[in-house]
């Protein structure tokens, strides 16, 4: 029953992520602008964020009406089935607004609070990543694995920045200390894609403060199923406070360094 239900949930997640990705890729207005802002004037929502979330929630209401939903743009329902869908209709909205290709539709499925399915569709890359708990991670149907941990000074590490001034100041301070100690830093603008890049071996590690569950739930499962460790502060799961993903052997020293640098607070 568990395997068959997870397979059903994966099929639905793949289908609705594809539909939302097609809408976003093919339906983006030439004059796309900001529809609203959230935490600051540079934390934006576009009309297409709202349209994508509506497409996804309408699809789920048709196929899984008893399930709960948590969406970035306000969709929220408890449900009665023990299943909850955690949705980011556009992860990387600023990239999408500017016409940059690094944006994705991120969909995770929880059962009784545990993430069991993750799908990240990146239409402008032409790639879709997915994982089912205990069944490995895949990019376009091909199995992926994290890159073996390099020496710390040779690590390529992804990160991201918040939209509130005080948080950005703190993140810049951490970056100032971290950058001289590693190969380089990448800032792609989509947490979901960054986590999948760890899974695919395109990044050695990724960390960020200030993510929400819809930002990391799907990507973190995909990274774990590809062999990465994920977490937050020592002994704490990934959370809004801090999210880290890296290969074993790199995760531990990166987590220790970030803890010492206070990357978990503004």
From TrEMBL:
Pathway: Amino-acid biosynthesis; L-histidine biosynthesis; L-histidine from 5-phospho-alpha-D-ribose 1-diphosphate: step 8/9. Keywords: Hydrolase, Magnesium, Metal-binding. Pfam families: Inositol_P. Mg(2+) 2 binds at residue 90. GO terms for molecular function: histidinol-phosphatase activity; inositol monophosphate 1-phosphatase activity; metal ion binding. GO terms for biological process: inositol metabolic process; phosphatidylinositol phosphate biosynthetic process; signal transduction. Catalyzes the dephosphorylation of histidinol-phosphate to histidinol, the direct precursor of histidine. This is Inositol-1-monophosphatase. It comes from Streptomyces himastatinicus ATCC 53653.
